[in-house]
Amino acid sequence: MFVTVPDTVGNVGELLVNSLAQERASNRHCLLLVMESLKFLARQGCAIQGHTEKRDGNLYQLLTLRSSSDTKVFH
């Protein structure tokens, strides 16, 4: 039995390369956001971690705030 693939799918290699490029760009964006947030906290002399829970730290709270306007973060 033969399966035919429609021409609209395109080259699988190209699809994989494009997908990888998009994922890299998204990861780079998120990493830069984290690095900028760390730099900000360091300049302000603020602690990065909280005392009791993972979600009460300054870094987590800052990233949560910044991600509210950026849909690529935390997804």
Query: Which regions contain 5 or more consecutive residues with pLDDT less than 50?
Result: none
Mean model confidence by pLDDT: 83
Main sheet: strands, sense, barrel: none
Overall morphology: elongated
Radius of gyration: 20 Å
Summarize the helix and strand pattern as letters: HH
Percent of sequence in beta strands: under 5%
Could you tell me the number of beta strands?
0
Decide which structural class fits the backbone: mainly alpha
What share of residues is helical? 55-70%
Number of alpha- plus pi-helical segments: 2
Question: What does this protein look like?
Answer:
- The chain has 75 residues and is an all-alpha fold.
- α1 (12-44) crosses α2 (58-67).
- It has 2 helices and no strands.
- The chain has helices spanning 12-44, 58-67.
- The model has no long low-confidence stretch (mean pLDDT 83).
Keywords:
75 residues; mainly alpha; 2 helices; 0% strand; elongated
Brief characterization of the structure:
With 75 residues, this protein is mainly alpha-helical. It has helices at residues 12-44, 58-67. It has a domain at 47-75.
How would the blueprint of this fold be written?
Layout: H1 12-44, H2 58-67
